[in-house]
Amino acid sequence: MPAFVLDDPTPADPRRAWDRLDQAARDACYDNNAGVPDSAAQVTARNAASAEYRATHPAGLDIAYGQIPDGEGTRTAFDLYPAADPSAPCLVFVHGGYWQRNARADFACFAAGPNASGWSVAMPGYTLAPDASLAGIVAEIGTALDWLTEHGAAHGIGGPIILAGWSAGAQLAALHLGHPAVTAVLAISGVYDLAPIRETYLNEKLGLTDAEIEMLSPLRRLVVRKPMTITYGSWELPALVHDSRNLHALRSAAHAPGALLPVPGADHFSILDEFRRPDGLLVRAAQDLLGDAR
User: Fold this and answer.
1) What separation in angstroms does the CA of 219 have from each of 32, 87, 135, 137, 216?
2) Distance (Å, rounded) from C-alpha 228 to C-alpha 263?
3) In what order do the strands lie in the sheet with 260-263?
4) Residues in domain BD-FAE-like (predicted)?
5) Which of 81, 105, 215, 283 could bridge across to 111 with cysteines, CB 3.0–4.6 Å?
């Protein structure tokens, strides 16, 4: 009987022709705001919902985890949304914004689904580029995980940690799969090879070095054999889709556990709505990761 293979609806990776792309075309490969027609409306709605969630859950906000210089804000701090059970699993969510925009407060509404399913949620902030290098940002996430390990129980969070990140936050999460406190990683709509980023508009604030590209690109790192689910929306920019597939292929070749999870009909922003309710796909993916790690 002949085998039937469905055509892959995802466009080819434009970076295969990188040398033939002009600057505008290279920039467009990573411009999620332009790539999603209603991105501005989605962000406005997200921020409003997050402000409401923070207002109704004020007890654990703005808890510093690092050394904050005098006169600075609370970037290196957590917003904590503990479950009633202090031993409940905790989703640590790292926001995105290409390491140079957004704040943890903008994503509070995505604690709703995990909280409703009985999980704690912890959202760390971090210093944005150009005030910090990418290496410095990566180090801050490590410091945040260290702090949560040592002090989380005092704030009602003592269970196993599933580390999740979205967009640039997925790169930050992937790099910390090896942290001793991390049980597994849920990487959402991430960027996993930094080399092309250096040749786009994003590098103006990042100033990526050769060393950072090699050390901080998950696709260029040794595989950590803890569970990692890699997920993306079917309407993502092709470069991000292929980064996700490439990272999963790299891990599969090393026999590392974890699923590749496309979300049909989701774009770079709407995919996070799967955290808004307890039966959302991303909530279930985190739950499955916890089960896989046990």
Assistant:
1) 21, 34, 16, 18, 9
2) 16
3) 63-64, 77-81, 120-124, 90-94, 161-166, 182-188, 228-233, 260-263
4) 84-176
5) 81
Q: Which residue do the tokens 């922003």 mark?
A: 269
Cis peptide before 238 (omega within 30 of 0): no
Q: CB atoms < 10 A from the CB of 273, how many?
A: 19
Judge contact between 247 and 171, C-beta under 8 A: no
pLDDT tens track for 200-237:
999 999 999 999 999 999 999 999 999 999 999 999 99
For 28-76, what is each residue's pLDDT tens digit? Answer: 999 999 999 999 999 999 999 999 999 999 999 999 997 654 434 589 9
C-alpha–C-alpha distance, residues 121 and 111, integer Å: 6
Question: Cα dihedral sign for 64, 80, 41, 138?
Answer: positive
Residue 4's pLDDT is 44
For 69-121, write each residue's pLDDT tens digit. Answer: 443 458 999 999 999 999 999 999 999 999 999 999 999 999 999 999 999 99
Residue 192 CA, distance from chain mean position: 11
As for how many domains the chain has, the answer is: 1
Tell me the CATH number at 265. Answer: 3.40.50.1820
102 burial via Cβ count (<10 Å: 0-12, 13-18, 19+): buried
